[in-house]
Automatic annotation (TrEMBL):
Alphabetical keyword list: DNA damage, Exonuclease, Hydrolase, Nuclease, Nucleus, Phosphoprotein, Signal
Catalytic activity from the UniProt record: Exonucleolytic cleavage in the 3'- to 5'-direction to yield nucleoside 5'-phosphates
Entry function: Component of the 9-1-1 cell-cycle checkpoint response complex that plays a major role in DNA repair. The 9-1-1 complex is recruited to DNA lesion upon damage by the RAD17-replication factor C (RFC) clamp loader complex. Acts then as a sliding clamp platform on DNA for several proteins involved in long-patch base excision repair (LP-BER).
Leading EC class: hydrolase
Record-given protein name: Cell cycle checkpoint control protein RAD9A
Family per record: Belongs to the rad9 family.
Organism: Formicarius rufipectus
EC number of the protein: 3.1.11.2
The keyword Nucleus belongs to this UniProt entry's keyword annotation: yes
GO biological process: cellular response to ionizing radiation; DNA repair; DNA replication checkpoint signaling; mitotic intra-S DNA damage checkpoint signaling
CDD domains: PCNA (cd00577)
Length: 283
């Protein structure tokens, strides 16, 4: 059977946080094992937010992506990618501290003829928890976005970015990122007709020296949803990998990504264009 085995709390917590980050985008996600590793993908209903987290085969203690039906037959790929319901998977990776205390290994497997994926938690004291999650076969999900062509690229430690986002209330739905060659500003986004006497406006300014990499080719001000970014930050903090931000002018997507030797994550979010901002202010 096709199988991958997650070993040690560190990897298990990282994988679990990836699932939770996906849950901020959609109530379902694509589970897509390929020869080089396992990809998790998600897109929201309005297709304004897309996420992909790819775990290299080296991330796992053991990774096998094909099934052999007969010794003389060629190896046969499983009927994947497939789609899983998020609320069925979330209980498997409920919270990191429970995983740390109780779970030693996590096995994820599926057989060629099966209509489910098996998540098995091997816990302390010989306890084994097994979850059989049915899946739906589906077409591949892929976002087309050439982030390397973006004129603006920022690279910042996830801890610093998380510290910035703490200052925005959980009720804040959208924020604006404004950049020039000499400064970066994160600020609350509010419609022009909002009652400012009842609205808390937050602005946080950073200098280029606070970034690991700083390239601003065009002055820009982009507004995007904060919910999906919070999920990525919780995930990236577990990996201690810097976050790269690629973007252009408003109306074009913004990409938040992390990458190291064993995993790569890309969260691509739509940004408000001027026409949308004007419509929001007129409503």
């Amino acid at each position: 059977p096709s199988e991958c085995l997650l070993h040690s709390f560190l990897f298990l917590a990282v994988f679990g946080r990836a699932i939770h980050a996906m849950a901020r985008i959609s109530d379902e996600f694509w589970f897509d094992p390929v020869e080089k590793g396992l990809a998790l993908r998600s897109v929201n209903s309005s297709r304004s937010a897309y996420a992909c987290v790819f775990f290299s085969s080296m991330f796992f203690q053991h990774y096998c992506w094909t099934a052999v039906s007969e010794p003389c037959q060629k190896e046969k790929q499983l009927p994947l990618p497939c789609k899983l319901i998020m609320k069925a998977v979330l209980p498997v990776f409920r919270c990191a501290n429970v995983l740390e205390r109780n779970v030693e290994k996590c096995s994820i497997s599926s057989s060629a003829g099966a209509q489910h994926i098996t998540f098995q938690l091997l816990c302390k004291h010989g306890i084994v928890k097994t979850y059989y999650l049915t899946f739906q076969e589906c077409d591949p999900l892929q976002a087309v976005f050439a982030k390397h062509l973006c004129p603006n690229i920022l690279k910042v430690h996830s801890r610093l970015l998380a510290d910035v986002m703490i200052h925005f209330p959980t009720s804040q739905e959208e924020i604006t990122l404004a950049v020039t060659p000499v400064k970066v500003c994160f600020k609350s986004y509010t419609e022009e007709d909002a009652d400012f006497s009842r609205t808390m406006v937050t602005e946080i300014h950073l200098s280029p020296e606070e970034f690991d990499y700083f390239q601003v080719g065009v002055d820009s001000e982009v507004t995007f949803c904060l919910k999906e970014l919070r999920g990525l930050l919780a995930f990236s903090e577990a990996t201690s990998v810097p976050v790269s931000i690629h973007f252009d002018r408003c109306g074009k997507p913004i990409a938040f990504s992390i990458e190291d030797m064993v995993l790569e994550a890309n969260f691509i979010l739509a940004t408000l264009c001027e026409a949308q901002k004007e419509a929001a202010s007129q409503e």
